[in-house]
Design brief:
alpha/beta, Alpha-Beta Plaits, TIM Barrel, 3 domains, eight-stranded mixed beta barrel, five-stranded mixed beta sheet, 20 helices, 17% strand, binds ligand C2E, binds calcium ion
């Protein structure tokens, strides 16, 4: 019984000994000097506990004092044990939370791939060490369309499936990241056998098969642009800019892969220069409108004009809209340009009317105009100032512009149609419209794209497309305009098919306002 105190102190010592490994782990995890001090103090305690035990055995001490001190020592050992255990588990929890936060900050939550920030960090890491590598920028084409048609859930699943598909095409050392909504990027470390071409070929084979997403099988289409370090840029920003440029080129030309070249860089600089020239030209209203007649097939005479913008140059030449409208769209200048077109057409319209014109003027509007409340307000204001103007104007929207943002297009068309404006779907057949949308919206007219019309004589497939569009338009209660009529044979075919309106070089090229007015007076 007398020796019981030594058992109590021994248990205290056991607690202290058991605290040592945990304290050591904390020391390693925190690298904090105070934990090292504590570690040494525990050793000192153990020695002190042994010394006290020896003292109690060797000396004559009051039994009560011995037991009180023994219990205090036991409690002290237990206290140290609990504190170190609890501290260690808190530290682990904090570390785990930090690790999760770090992962979230550097990874995309949907696909768990590295995100844009981590992609930049990895690329700088290779560049700083002078390791030759390629950057591949990958864009999932028509993702917005897939999202709109199948819903966001399927859209998300498709992104996950695309990420997995891309990941499985990579041979290490290569890393894949998701750098934007539907944009992925790969860093390829240049190694003997495995280069861009090998990687692109593997991706090409993989996307030849549809991806399984829920119940759906979706065939995806990618545009990939590539740049190389150090040939195409010596820092992250330039490499990324060039890969992006190549990717846009791939998208524009519907290629799977386009590598960056110096020529591409020069072309982009020219575009930038044209963009800055365009800005000044809009401010100084350097444009002019040409008018191309649209003839009624039944009456055989002009029923309206399509306004086509021209940019006259100092040397007497013109820059044609196909060269600057896409740049105006990319640089958000299109709205200003369209406003000018509308205002100028309204001014020209008074002159047309003064010369006895009773038809409509067709104006081309872009996808961005269609989504713009500023454009809507501009037209509404114009209508408020001159309420009959809506009888004289038809807006031409391309099929693809309408499909870019269906909801915005629907709202714009319905609002302006209530004011009396007509709408025509331009370049029909080149994009993919939703037929139910065409039935639902007040579309007056469908314009068959000139690529089908021009070749309908020699290409039976084009003839079949024109024939079906005329049929479809009749079913939907829309008029049909065939544009790009260049000879009497095509005209005859179109008349036989029952086309309502005809437009093309066969009747007239686009002409100046003055020429159009002269034409009115001679008819
Ligand atoms: P679009 O709306 O399809 O206009 C028809 C284009 O075909 C015009 O080219 C016209 O000159 C050309 N064309 C007409 N008949 C024939 C033909 O028989 N044969 C051939 N080969 N071509 C014919 P343009 O004026 O160069 O305009 C090109 C495109 O630029 C237009 O295509 C339109 O998308 C756009 N655009 C023109 N003016 C404007 C505008 O004011 N605003 C906007 N947003 N786009 C415009
Ligand atoms: Ca047009
Ligand atoms: Ca057209």
């Amino acid at each position: 019984m007398d020796e019981l105190f030594s058992v109590i102190i021994f248990v205290g010592i056991l607690f202290l000994v058991a605290s040592l490994p945990t304290t050591l782990r904390i020391c390693r995890a925190t690298e904090n000097v105070f934990w090292y001090i504590l570690f040494n103090l525990i050793f000192l305690f153990i020695l002190s506990y042994c010394a006290v035990t020896y003292y109690f055995i060797a000396s004559i001490v009051n039994t009560n004092v011995i037991y009180i001190v023994s219990c205090i020592l036991l409690a002290g050992g237990g206290f140290v044990y609990l504190v170190t255990k609890l501290s260690y588990s808190s530290i682990l929890k904090i570390e785990q939370t930090l690790e999760e936060q770090r992962f979230q900050a550097e990874h995309d939550s949907l696909t768990a791939l590295p995100n844009r920030k981590m992609f930049f960090n990895s690329l700088s890491h290779y560049i700083n060490r002078g390791i030759p590598c390629s950057v591949l920028f990958i864009d999932l084409n028509n993702f917005k369309y897939i999202n709109d048609s199948f819903g966001h859930h399927i859209g998300d699943q498709l992104l996950i499936a695309t990420a997995k598909m891309l990941q499985s095409q990579l041979i290490q050392p290569a890393s894949l990241a998701r750098i934007g909504g539907d944009e992925f990027a790969i860093i390829l470390i240049q190694q003997n056998q495995y280069n861009d071409e090998a990687c692109i070929n593997k991706i090409k084979q993989a996307i030849a098969q549809p991806l399984k997403v829920g119940q759906q099988s979706i065939l995806i289409n990618l545009s990939i642009g590539g740049s190389h370090y150090p040939q195409d840029g010596e820092n992250v920003d330039v490499l990324i800019k060039n890969a992006d440029l190549a990717m846009y080129e791939a998208k524009k030309n519907k290629h799977l892969f386009v590598p960056y070249t110096q020529a591409l860089g020069e072309k982009s600089n020219e575009t930038l220069m044209l963009a800055s020239k365009l800005k000044t030209a809009i401010e100084q209203e350097e444009f002019t409108l040409y008018y191309q007649p649209i003839s009624s097939a039944k009456a055989g005479q002009s029923s309206g004009f399509e306004a086509l913008i021209r940019w006259p140059q100092k040397d007497g030449s013109f820059i044609y809209p196909d060269s600057f409208i896409p740049i105006a769209e990319q640089t958000n200048l299109i709205l200003l340009l369209t406003k000018w077109v509308v205002n100028q057409a309204a001014r020209d319209l008074s002159r047309f009317k003064a010369n006895g014109f009773t038809g409509t003027i067709h104006l081309n509007i872009s996808a961005q105009d269609l989504q713009s409340p500023v454009f809507l307000k501009h037209i509404v204001d114009l209508h408020d100032a001159n309420p009959t103007i809506s009888d004289d104007i038809t807006f031409e929207i391309t099929e693809s512009a309408m499909m870019t943002n269906i909801d915005a297009a629907r709202e714009m068309i319905l609002t302006l149609n209530k004011k009396g404006f007509y709408f025509s779907i331009d370049d029909f057949g080149t994009g993919f419209s939703s037929l139910s949308l065409l039935r639902e919206l007040p579309i007056e007219q469908i314009k068959i794209d000139r690529s089908f019309v021009t070749n309908m004589l020699s290409h039976s497939a084009d003839f079949a497309i024109v024939e079906s569009i005329v049929f479809l338009a009749n079913q939907l209660g829309c008029d049909v305009v065939a544009e790009g009529v260049e000879n009497s044979e095509v005209e005859q075919l179109l008349l036989n098919l029952g086309c309502d309106y005809l437009q093309g070089y066969y009747y007239s090229k686009p002409i100046t306002l003055e020429e159009a007015l002269v034409g009115l007076n001679t008819n």
